[in-house]
Amino acid sequence: MSPPRIYQVSVRHLLCGENPERGPITLGAIDDAWLAGIRESGFDWLYLYGVWDTGQAGPRISRDHPSFWRDPLQHLPKGSLADVCGSPFAIRSYQVDPRVGTEIDLDHLRDRCHRAGLFLMLDFVVNHTAMDHPWMIHRPEWYIQPKGDSADLHPGWFFPIASDNGPRQIAFGKDPYFPPWVDTAQLNLLHPGLIEAQTDALLAAGSRCDGLRCDMAMLALGDVFRSTWGELADPADGSSAADTAFWESAVPRLKARHPECVLCAEAYWDLEARLLQIGFDLAYDKPMLDHLKFGDGRAVRGHLAKTQANAGKLVRFTENHDEKRMAATFAPGRLEAAYLLTWLHGGPVLVHDGQQEGRKLDAGIHLARRAPEAPDAGISALTEKWLAVRREFPGREQTPLTTRPVSMDNSTHEQMVAWGEESLRRRLIVCVNFAPHPSQARLIPPADWVSYHGWNLTDLVNSRQYFARSDDLVANGLFVDLPAWGFHLLAWDR
């Protein structure tokens, strides 16, 4: 099976587009031709975020916090507070948000995705809920609450509510390294009752789609949760904290109920492998993105070698709704090299809507519309080429290629990332100089790839022709000399 190729798009941006005059439209309006186009581009998964009901509190709180949307709003034609719709990750229930459609619309969309050859991925947010979730009123003990003087020690962490059992203070959702998310309420993921209820929510969400992208999944690991909240992780109602953390309990139940449902963990802090061991099918490869941002080919090589055992499960990406647009942050040349390493190296890949067009403006998850922006013709053409290469060479099996120095005093080969792969009729060598300077290397191909007649090579980047003699390939390997951030995609008939 080929590695998953995931296309991520906000349902709000997809439905509302860029036109301020468009009225409300629903999931049923997503065009079959658009779905077919996503599949024809080489993707087999549609990750649609913003489908679930976010209630009324989230949009209201968002409108009260201009820092959530001020920058992207200024680029919207006729932008106003009416465009502020709240975060799609402050979820009130795992039912379709009435502002984007109905339950039937979602069922039909899933069927239409399948007819187009696409699987449908939606969100599951384990760590927190919207602030108007029914549990807030009826089961406040399922949320983190202050103890002793903790509210005084941590000003800004808690907010008051009126529950069925009287006034309470509840923590805002947060992770340990950033200020609280003030449009969310923090669940106590060690409360046995909450684990049971949240598992039911996971099962319900998993029944509506083919896969779930689990937001900030590492926050629900038992030791991470305990480290984040300390003594506050002990349930406020005096219940004993669960012996088994959420994912260890919930994932086997999901797999038993919906064995075909693919679980994808949004993961940070080098916790990807742990989540995969628990039973996640996929996990974000954030370390790869960090190495690409740092711009060191040695680090990229080291990471690819280190993660080889999980290469088929680590989702590589260069941007998503949380990351800055790469076209706005990476210089030309380096941007294209980073895209190539992400999109063509073996393993799953996630592409963010607009990325393939070279969009630079942050669309903003709190806004229902995105700003109009002309495609970058150069990036559009190059990314289409990458997708065409991936259609021919699906990345099922790739062979890392050893790089050797061309001379004793030249270590630039260490910046080269190179691999080979095969299609039914051709072989391909990809070599990327991920460095801000020229680099040279000799690539050592597999012995059974070297034919008596040598190689008539075509570079798929620029259609240039090369010939490599078989005796030279055997004795010295394939010589490559690339400029800063340069790359070859060398193909030849088998």
Notes on the structure:
The protein has 494 residues and is an alpha/beta fold. The chain folds into two domains: 5-392, TIM Barrel (Alpha-Beta Barrel); 398-493, Immunoglobulin-like (Sandwich), CATH 2.60.40. Helices cover 30% and strands 23% of the residues. The chain has 17 helices and 23 strands. The protein has an eight-stranded parallel beta sheet with strand order 13-12-11-10-5-2-1-14. Helix 15 packs parallel to helix 16. The chain is elongated, with a radius of gyration of 25 Å. The relative contact order is 0.11. The mean pLDDT is 91.
Overall 3D shape: elongated
Radius of gyration of CA atoms, rounded to a whole number: 25 Å
Give the count of structural domains: 2
CATH fold-level name of the largest domain:
TIM Barrel
Number of DSSP strand runs:
23
Cα(first) to Cα(last) distance is 22 Å
Q: Can you give the mean pLDDT? A: 91
Question: Can you tell me the CATH superfamily of the largest domain?
Answer: Glycosidases
Task: Give the second-level CATH assignment, the architecture of the largest domain.
Answer: Alpha-Beta Barrel
Under the CATH scheme, which class of the largest domain?
A: Alpha Beta
Q: Major beta sheet, specifics? A: 8 strands, parallel
Please state roughly what percent of the residues sit in beta strands, choosing from under 5%, 5-15%, 15-25%, 25-35%, 35-45% or over 45%: 15-25%
Count of discrete alpha- or pi-helical segments spanning 4 or more residues: 17
Contiguous uncertain segments of 5+ residues: none
Helical content (DSSP H or I, runs of 4+)? 25-40%
